[in-house]
UniProtKB/TrEMBL annotation:
Family that this chain belongs to: Belongs to the peroxidase family.
Single Gene Ontology MF annotation: heme binding
Domain of life: Eukaryota
Highest classification ranks of the organism: Eukaryota, Viridiplantae, Streptophyta, Embryophyta, Tracheophyta
Name of the protein in question: Plant heme peroxidase family profile domain-containing protein
Keywords: Oxidoreductase, Signal
Keyword Metal-binding applies: no
Length: 347
């Protein structure tokens, strides 16, 4: 009976060749398994039972290893699929940034409006109800026409035109307005950083580019760029959540920022987002003892070659702002790879 059973497992037949096998190592795929030595003072029947038990252990281990090997194979396939999706998103994201940066470069007068558009879309977030946030709701006519959004329609129209171009080459579906607005603000912020570098080089664009690439903050955008996959709201966010920045007092600004978890430091570093005139905004913010030290810190930083403190803090704050209350879909904009019909291959 034992021999009949073993005959179905040809890889285990060598085990029965030993009456009292020494401690041996039997090799199964990629793994070594050590079976125990059988005592010679046992009867033949006892030895058969010992052998059978060891054989069953080996079989169980082999099956387990095969299952593990199969699981590893599936994990490998899953990891490969994940890498493909990451590459798809990365390639699409690079195209999106290129399109937006080109549009911004051709319309530099809209930079401040793009920054405020992103801020106003995001600051509708309400922690109590977990509603609002950077969800693209500002695209609705009922929201963009509100007093706090006066003067921002030009920026929105620019992004709508950019969206048509982006959607024309997207293989993973149309880009959401939520992503579009925040990535446009990233492009606008980068444009201001680059412009500052060019000014430091006496207006020489080539030298300014070299300076920004050498000392700029491009490497700090990594966390922001992972947040790609925001969903669009289906209706406008509630009214009354955004101040009219040009008319707001410092206290009103501080209260609004505090409501979403920001303090005086974040308020100061986002001064360029608070209306069309950053200098006027910073002059007002500097009248507040809590905000003034941060305004002065960032003004000094902007005078340096690298602007490190200012740029890094702005990128960090903007990254948090751009994700308030949002669930990021990390599979957004991915698409199925075309299958190869092997029947058409010629060998």
């Amino acid at each position: 009976m034992g021999i009949l059973f073993l005959s179905t497992c040809s890889s285990l037949l060598p085990l029965v060749a030993y009456r009292t096998p020494p401690t041996s190592t039997y090799r199964f795929p990629s793994v070594s398994i050590c079976c125990s030595k059988i005592r010679s003072d046992f009867s033949d029947e006892d030895q058969f039972h010992w052998r059978r038990r060891d054989i069953l252990k080996c079989i169980g281990t082999t099956v387990g290893l095969e299952l593990i090997g199969s699981s590893i194979t599936h994990v490998g396939i899953a990891n490969a699929a994940d890498l493909i999706e990451r590459r798809q998103r990365s390639e699409f994201q690079s195209q999106v940034k290129g399109t937006l940066f080109k549009a911004i470069k051709e319309n530099p007068d809209l930079i401040s409006s793009i920054l405020t558009l992103a801020l106003n879309d995001a600051l509708t977030y309400d922690k109590a109800t977990k509603s609002g946030g950077p969800n693209g709701s500002i695209r609705f006519s009922s929201e963009i026409s509100r007093p706090e959004n006066k003067g921002l329609s030009g920026a929105l129209k620019l992004l709508e035109e950019a969206k048509k171009e982006i959607d024309s080459y997207s293989k993973g579906g149309p880009i959401s307005y939520a992503d579009l607005i925040q990535y446009a603000a990233q492009g606008a912020a980068k444009a201001t950083f680059l412009a500052a570098a060019i000014r430091k080089c006496g207006g020489n664009e080539e030298k300014g580019n070299i300076l920004y690439n050498a000392y700029g903050s491009s490497g700090q955008w990594g966390l922001f760029e992972k947040q790609f996959g925001r969903a669009d709201a289906e209706e406008a966010d509630p009214e009354g959540r955004i101040p009219i920045w040009e008319n707001a007092s410092v206290k009103e600004m501080k209260d609004k920022f505090s409501a979403v978890g920001f303090g005086p430091r974040q308020l100061a570093v986002l001064s360029a987002f608070l209306g069309p005139d950053q200098t006027a905004t910073e002059t007002l913010l500097a009248t507040d003892p809590d905000v003034a030290p941060w305004v002065q810190k960032y003004q000094r930083s902007r005078e340096t070659v690298s602007q490190t403190d200012y740029e890094v803090d702005l990128i960090t704050t903007f990254t948090k702002l751009s994700t308030l209350g949002q669930q990021i879909n990390y599979e957004a904009y991915t698409y199925a790879r075309p299958k190869i019909d092997i029947t058409k291959l010629k060998l």
